């Protein structure tokens, strides 16, 4: 083999051995095999040779080209693998490092109660409906069978808003009951909804806040009876308070939008404050059979459709369940309070674990 071929091979292999990275390697590839590379230069000279010489020289150069191509490719793979190893080492994550404890927030008791209520009624086939906080007087009162001069309008200490030109009066909703109206107007029975949300009344003391939360419930179908109402609410209260034997009492009452109407009490011990204890009762929600006039206001024939409805104060339920003494503390945004009464954000209300 001629000297120049030997030199070329030696130089190329030496250069490859020294190449440390992709760029150096690429420069060698171009210098030897590229269009104006050294080996390419030698191959170009073949054209000027006579046939015999070209044959031996050609074979020699082709062998060299194959050999160098293989060597270059192999070194390329080595450099690539080394680069990957270096990256893996540089970017290594030490999974054995201890976790840095950062303070974790808590779910506010109101949100937690809404989640629990939703989980329980969800399991009974209810869906969640919503309505606006700024409600028309008609949805909040009139359609719910509360006439213009009825005392309920003043009982509620309503926040009235300036009415727009050509429109009826608007209020900050005093109850979530207006969502019943919106739902009946918006969808055909059968209906099974709960409507949690904010409500507003001009009232402020240890058990009243100008903004608080309620959850409404409505079922409309054929053949709905008081038995359905009682069964549903007893089941709900027993699961919510985690007491399968919780005593529940239905007491005749009055709401304009239900007939008959009932307040619902749960057993409570005045001595120990324990829920489910037996010497007294605590009122926890209002309920009743949907008044035929309310059904008619929403275009439903009361002879064909019956329903029951209920409404509860979310803070009140949360206070009873968690032993929170003062309603105002819900809105003071005191982190210590939240840390105490808040629940773990990574442990959502799931029925199968008991809410
Ligand atoms: N809206 C009532 C209130 O704010 C609660 C209520 C009572 C809702 C009876 C109902 C119901 O749907 O049937 O006091």
UniProtKB/TrEMBL annotation:
PROSITE patterns recorded: AA_TRNA_LIGASE_II
Pfam families noted in UniProt: Phe_tRNA-synt_N, tRNA-synt_2d
A cellular-component GO term for this protein: cytoplasm
Main location (coarse class): cytoplasm
Keyword ATP-binding included in the entry's annotation: yes
Cofactor note: Binds 2 magnesium ions per tetramer.
Subunit structure comment from the entry: Tetramer of two alpha and two beta subunits.
Keywords noted in UniProt: Aminoacyl-tRNA synthetase, ATP-binding, Cytoplasm, Ligase, Magnesium, Metal-binding, Nucleotide-binding, Protein biosynthesis
Reaction equations catalysed: tRNA(Phe) + L-phenylalanine + ATP = L-phenylalanyl-tRNA(Phe) + AMP + diphosphate + H(+)
GO molecular function: ATP binding; magnesium ion binding; phenylalanine-tRNA ligase activity; tRNA binding
Listed name of the protein: Phenylalanine--tRNA ligase alpha subunit
Location in or out of the cell: Cytoplasm
Residues annotated as binding Mg(2+): 259
Entry similarity comment: Belongs to the class-II aminoacyl-tRNA synthetase family. Phe-tRNA synthetase alpha subunit type 1 subfamily.
Domain Aminoacyl-transfer RNA synthetases class-II family profile: 120-348
Record HAMAP family: Phe_tRNA_synth_alpha1
Cofactor(s) the protein requires to work: Mg(2+)
EC number of the protein: 6.1.1.20
Gene Ontology biological process terms from the UniProt entry: phenylalanyl-tRNA aminoacylation
């Amino acid at each position: 083999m001629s000297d120049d071929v030997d030199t070329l091979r030696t130089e190329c292999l030496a250069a490859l051995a020294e190449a440390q990275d992709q760029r150096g390697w690429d420069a060698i590839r171009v210098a030897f095999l590229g269009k104006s590379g050294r080996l390419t230069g030698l191959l170009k000279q073949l054209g000027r040779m006579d046939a015999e010489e070209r044959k031996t020289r050609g074979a020699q150069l082709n062998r060299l080209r194959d050999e160098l191509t293989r060597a270059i490719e192999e070194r390329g793979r080595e450099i690539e693998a080394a680069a990957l190893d270096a990256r893996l080492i540089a970017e290594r994550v030490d999974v054995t490092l201890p976790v840095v404890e950062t303070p974790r927030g808590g779910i506010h008791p109101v949100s937690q109660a809404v989640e629990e209520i939703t989980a329980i009624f969800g399991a009974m086939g209810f869906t969640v409906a919503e309505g606006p906080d700024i409600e028309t007087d008609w949805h909040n009162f009139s359609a719910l069978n509360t006439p213009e001069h009825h005392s309920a309008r003043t009982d509620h200490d309503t926040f009235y808003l300036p009415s727009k030109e050509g429109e009826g009066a608007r209020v900050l909703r005093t109850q979530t009951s207006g969502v019943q109206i919106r739902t009946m107007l918006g969808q055909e029975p059968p209906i099974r909804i709960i409507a949690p949300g904010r409500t507003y009344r001009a009232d402020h003391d240890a058990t009243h806040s100008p903004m608080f939360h309620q959850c409404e419930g409505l079922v409309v179908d054929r053949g709905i009876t008081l038995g359905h109402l009682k069964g549903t609410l007893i089941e709900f209260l027993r699961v919510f308070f985690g007491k399968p034997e919780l005593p529940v009492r239905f007491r005749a009452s009055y709401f304009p939008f239900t007939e008959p109407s009932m307040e619902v009490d749960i057993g409570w011990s005045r001595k120990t404050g324990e829920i489910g204890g037996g010497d007294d009762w605590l009122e926890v929600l209002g309920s009743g059979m949907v008044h035929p006039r309310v059904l008619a206001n929403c275009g439903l024939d009361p002879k064909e459709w019956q329903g029951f409805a209920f409404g509860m104060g979310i803070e009140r339920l949360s206070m009873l369940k968690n032993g929170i003494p003062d309603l105002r503390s819900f809105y003071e945004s005191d982190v210590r309070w939240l840390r105490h009464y808040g629940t773990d954000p990574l442990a959502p209300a799931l029925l199968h674990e008991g809410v």
